[in-house]
Specification:
6 helices, alpha+beta, 5-stranded mixed sheet
């Protein structure tokens, strides 16, 4: 089943696997009375239904090399071929206190490492007790993110030359801390814009992220 979420400004975003992509657009055409045209750029494919509805796909692992321009009817073949291309992808999932890092090929994890460090929740008490607790929590968070950065440096950095891209997931603030680590500059230079929303990073979550990393995100807006 496709993963669906609501998007700002109206509409919904759906994640579609490369293998289901052509059928998904065919069904979009059937639901909306046909397709009047397809607009293709390096980073986006926009399909317009006869009733005015649109389906806009963000090109994963851009740029899309072929098929640019305006086309009559449904013309998503170049996007499908591009999405189906086998790739080696780095995966970096980080949340405060946990991380799961690996490399996936054709949607399957081939190398991975997962770690977790305790980070206490916030203390609502006041006074010196709260300040000591906050310092302890800050130290725990720093150690957890240092451990995550070390893991990325050990697992992903040595394999950068073989990767097509890196897909990130988890907490954006935690990822920003890692982004500041000079050892990881090459990792973030390869990172896709999309950040996967994931739960607590575990190996099972990494396996799911490996599959989702190949998906094409399509924003559907009805007229």
């Amino acid at each position: 089943m496709s993963r669906v979420r609501q998007v700002a400004g109206g509409g919904r975003a759906v994640e579609v696997s490369p293998e289901r992509l052509h059928g998904w657009f065919r069904r979009f055409s059937e639901r909306h009375g046909g397709v009047t045209g397809t607009e293709v750029t390096e980073r986006e494919v926009r399909v317009v239904g006869a009733d005015g509805a649109t389906a806009t796909a963000a090109v994963p692992f851009a740029p899309l090399a072929a098929g640019h321009g305006r086309h009559p009817g449904l013309a998503v073949g170049p996007l499908v071929d591009h999405a189906l291309t086998p790739r080696s992808i780095g995966l970096v999932l980080v949340r405060l206190g946990g991380h799961s890092v690996g490399v996936a090929e054709s949607g399957a994890v081939v190398v991975s490492r997962t770690g977790r460090r305790q980070v206490h929740g916030r203390n609502k008490a006041g006074g010196w007790s709260q300040q000591r607790f906050a310092r302890r929590r800050e130290g725990q968070a720093r150690q957890a993110l240092d451990a995550a950065a070390d893991t990325v440096a050990e697992v992903v950095v040595p394999r950068l030359a073989t990767l097509s891209a890196v897909v990130l997931g988890g907490d954006r603030q935690a990822l920003d801390v890692l982004r500041a680590d000079r050892r990881l500059s090459g990792v973030f230079a390869l990172a896709e814009e999309r950040v996967l929303d994931v739960g607590e990073p575990r190996r099972a979550v990494l396996d799911e992220a490996a599959r989702r990393a190949r998906d094409v995100e399509i924003v559907v807006r009805d007229r």
